[in-house]
Design goal:
The chain is an all-alpha fold. The protein has helices at about 40-55, 65-75, 80-85, 90-95, 100-115, 120-135, 135-145, 145-150, 180-185, 195-205.
Length: about 240
């Protein structure tokens, strides 16, 4: 049985607040299909799409989808469908979906398709439940066909990170090297110098209480050191002098 999407609150993130900042290098560039009048401009749009969906420092020529590019070039599909197809490729599944939990998959996919971070853990739980019930591809369709995507990017604009003020840019995030993946690896191995290691060592010692030892001088024999033995000098002479046997 398919579960409906759980409700979650939309908190006031940067992209939901009108900005008054002066455009700078942090202002994202908008790539539209209608602006591609030359081949170089079309290649720039393709590069922006690959960079947004995957990551700039992991893109390889083998990751390119020639079929989707040809359909987009011939205007058989829109930019929105091109983005949808890239997220559903085996490359995205291998790099993102198969190597992370549903919560991490939702976080990365929201950043790359909607250009924003998750609102709170409630949204992560809601979308991860959708993945568990209807599958990852249906989750992608729900985002791409959703009202938020259409209102911000429409059919012919490549998604981009909206209002870059925190965790910028999203497209440079590698799925396997975030704090989620790093902490998962660290928790499974011994770390030298960790406080928990010293606490475990202290628990394993199991010290036992010491019984105090009572000492008495009643039967203690103290030798008389005032009388020197016969033939043994009492003091040190300036010249060597050893007793003869």
């Amino acid at each position: 049985m398919t579960l409906p999407l759980l409700s979650y609150k939309t908190s006031s993130q940067n992209q939901r607040v009108a900005g008054y900042e002066v455009p700078s290098e942090d202002t994202p560039r908008v790539y539209r299909r209608a602006d591609c009048s030359t081949e170089s401009e079309f290649q720039a749009l393709l590069w922006a799409a690959y960079r947004q969906v995957f990551s700039e420092h992991v893109i390889l020529s083998a990751y390119r989808s020639v079929v989707l590019e040809t359909q987009l070039r011939n205007r058989a599909i829109s930019v929105r469908d091109f983005i949808r197809g890239l997220v559903k490729t085996d490359v995205y599944r291998r790099l993102v979906v198969d190597t992370n939990s549903n919560y991490r998959v939702v976080e990365l996919t929201l950043k790359r398709l909607l250009g924003r971070a998750p609102y709170d853990p409630t949204e992560l739980m809601a979308w991860s439940t959708q993945i568990a019930t209807v599958g990852f591809e249906a989750f992608v369709d729900a985002l791409v066909d959703g009202e938020e995507y259409r209102n911000n990017f429409g059919d012919h604009v490549v998604p981009y990170q909206r209002r870059r003020y925190k965790d910028r840019p999203f497209n440079l995030v590698t799925p396997r090297y975030d704090s989620y993946w790093r902490d998962k690896l660290e928790s499974e191995r011994y770390r030298w110098g960790a406080v928990s290691n010293f606490l475990d060592m202290a628990r394993e010692l199991k010290p036992q209480g010491r019984v105090p030892l009572t000492v008495t001088t009643a039967n203690l024999t103290i030798p008389n050191c005032e009388t020197a033995a016969k033939g043994v000098p009492v003091s040190i002479n300036p010249t060597p002098s050893f007793p003869l046997g």
